[in-house]
Amino acid sequence: MVKVKLKVGDEAPLFKLDSYNAGSIDLVELIEKQRIVIIFSRYFGCPICQLDLKELMERLSEIEETGAKLLYITQSSEEIAKNFIEEENISFPVIPSSKDKLYAEYGLGKMTLGTIKKVPGKLKAAKKAGISHGPKEGTESQCPGQFVIENNGQLIHLKKGWLDIDSLLEVL
Question: What are the distances in angstroms from CA 110 to CA 5, 28, 42, 116, 170?
């Protein structure tokens, strides 16, 4: 599968997929109503992804106050995802991406050098927070990322790498 190179101003790749916790998610329908924030995690067993999810849950109200709708993409299986959804009381749609297809459509391939360089510090922070590695799922080298889609379908923010809520909020 060829990885695309998206930039701000491009049309967002559209999808209609079943989520683990909110039924069918049709991006076309959602875009017409509000801005969309898409967070691409790797998988729920990843300690850095767990750390990022913890921060996301702590700051979720800041995103919701902007009126944006949050979608969370994961490589995790239904069983593991549903456990995290229940344990963390996740209210936003958690959507599986099989075989990294959606990641590739959004230009997310293997982790970038900048993402890799942050791994030791992020792992140290995860360990300090009492987070351990869970089951490995999907592609271990998959790059995470975040996107904001305007209600006209154009990307107004894209960032490859670990979660950066402040940069999201700047465009929301």
Answer: 13, 27, 11, 10, 26
Cα angle 121, 127, 129 (rounded to 5 degrees) comes to 105
CATH fourth-level superfamily of 16-171: Glutaredoxin (3.40.30.10)
**Could you count the other beta carbons within 10 Å of the beta carbon of residue 105?**
17
DSSP 107: T
Domain definitions of the chain by residue range: 16-171
pLDDT 10s digits, 18-74: 999 999 999 999 999 999 999 999 999 999 999 999 999 999 999 999 999 999 999
